[in-house]
Amino acid sequence: MIAFIDAPSPNFDARRAPPDMLVLHYTGMQTGEAALARLRDPEAKVSAHYLVEEDGRIFHLVPEERRAWHAGRGVWQGEDDCNAASIGIEIVNPGHEFGYRDFPEAQIAAVIALIGDIRSRWTIPDNRIIGHSDLAPDRKEDPGERFPWKRLAEAGHGLWFEPAPERIHALGGLLQKGDQGIGVVVLRAGLHRLGYGLKPGGDYDADAETAVRAFQRHWRPSRIDGVADGETRAHLVGLLQLASAESVTGVLN
Is the peptide bond before 18 cis (omega within 30 degrees of 0)? Predict the structure, then answer.
């Protein structure tokens, strides 16, 4: 049993359907106390369902059955009201503005336990466990490249793929802003299929660069430059295969 600390927020409204997505954030404020106060301030008009402190304490702010106000403008897998579809988890970390740092072990263990608990109540596919930066790559960076997405996936939550060297080599050189051609079309289509709001078709424009950077921040954190090298594209191909297999399994079940 998880021990929740009740800290009700007034910032929520009604859902139109059961949640089927999880969105992870960092708080991006100097202290957890300040973040908790903001998430409960009716004037701020922001909230999340949960906040996880660095020491592993979990605060429960909004009932899962209600629509918390955490995601804002963005798209994932065609859903453009991500608040309505998701459960939001704020993870205390000062973020890029105030001294971004690694997430402590106690905090990550608590996040993993919390996600497992949430998924015991709702049907949330691995390909709909995402970061704030995935649904809003033009606005957000959280929870960022230091968040251990691989660790989360190893615990059974979310997608992760490690491409073999030969797969990386087979995909060749770089695709970057200003490029055109079939490689760019395939890249944009793949990012769109995975869930990003990037429209398929077109050149390697600023929107494509922004989506690639967000993808790298989640799935290839050693390179976050918006340039799609062979390894970035190999990660994408593998993730699409995992997501496709998950969809088939879901249908069969």
Answer: no
DSSP state string for the chain? ---EEE---S-EEE-SS---EEEEEE--SS-HHHHHHHHT-TTT----SEEE-TTS-EEE-S-TTEEES-S-S--BTTBS-HHHHEEEEEE---HHHH---PPPHHHHHHHHHHHHHHHTTS---GGGEEEHHHH-TTT---S-TTS-HHHHHHTT-S------HHHHHHT-S-B-TT--SHHHHHHHHHHHHHT-SPPSSS-S-HHHHHHHHHHHHHH-TT--SS-B-HHHHHHHHHHHHHHHHHHHHHHH-
**pLDDT number for residue 250:** 53
Q: How far is CA 203 from the centre of its chain?
A: 25
Reported as a single tens digit per residue, the pLDDT across 110-164 is: 999 999 999 999 999 999 999 999 999 999 999 999 999 999 999 999 999 999 9
| CA atoms of 127 and 134, how far apart (whole Å) | 11
Q: Is residue 249 scored above 80 in pLDDT?
A: no
Q: Among all residues, which ones are annotated catalytic?
A: 90
Let me know: does 51 contact 35? Beta carbons within 8 Å: yes
pTM (2 d.p.) = 0.96
Identify the sign of the CA torsion 161, 167, 170, 173: positive
- Distance from C-alpha of 19 to C-alpha of 198, rounded to nearest angstrom: 23
Quickly state the pLDDT bin for 252 (edges 50, 70, 90).
very low
